[in-house]
Amino acid sequence: MSTRCEIAVCHNDGRIAAKLYRHCDGYPKVVKPDLVQGITKAHRLLKKSIGHFDAETLAALLIVQSQDNRGLPGIVPCQNTHGDLAYRYRVTIVDDFTVELEESDCGHLATIQLPA
Predict the structure, then answer these.
(1) What pLDDT is attached to residue 37?
(2) Global pTM?
(3) Cα–Cα distance measured from residue 43 to residue 104, given in angstroms and rounded to the nearest whole number
(4) Residue 111 in 3-state DSSP?
(5) Which helix (H) or strand (E) holds 28?
(6) Which of 1, 32, 36, 91 has the highest CB neighbour number within 10 Å of its CB?
(7) pLDDT, position 50
(8) Low-confidence ranges of the chain (pLDDT < 50)
């Protein structure tokens, strides 16, 4: 049985910029390190290329980074909330160097401090 989850990527005012769906391995012990690594990598890329860090582009890069060795994404965009989600995550860009990661039942999971 798959452990499904939803990831809301939010602006610093709390508005949802993008909702993502992960069909497998939605447990916090798997998703948290994946998101921390993906957010850190995306931040480094965005700061070098376009000079700023925004929620929409972060969501797109998380999808690209989730591709397996066949090129299939492990995270996809979603518009509707699935009825059988095990976990709901919220990634909030606080500022250009801070991202908050929360899960609806577990609460705060991490504050990610990104390099300048």
Answers:
(1) 94
(2) 0.92
(3) 24
(4) strand
(5) helix 28-49
(6) 91
(7) 82
(8) none
* Structure tokens, 33: 């390190």
Which pair of structure tokens corresponds to residue 106?
Answer: 């577990």
Element (H, E) at 75: strand 75-77
Amino acid at residue number 18: A
Pairing of strands 98-103, 87-95: antiparallel
Instruction: Calculate ∠ Cα 86-63-40, nearest 5°.
Output: 95
Length of the chain: 116
SS3 110: strand
Where exactly are the structural domains of the chain? 5-113
* Residue 54 one-letter amino acid: D
Angle at 106 between CA 18 and CA 10, to 5 degrees: 20
pLDDT at 47: 84
Q: Is 34 helix (H, G, I), strand (E, B) or coil?
A: helix
Work out the number of other CB atoms within 10 angstroms of the CB of residue 61.
17
- Structural contact between residues 4 and 86, judged by C-beta atoms closer than 8 angstroms: yes
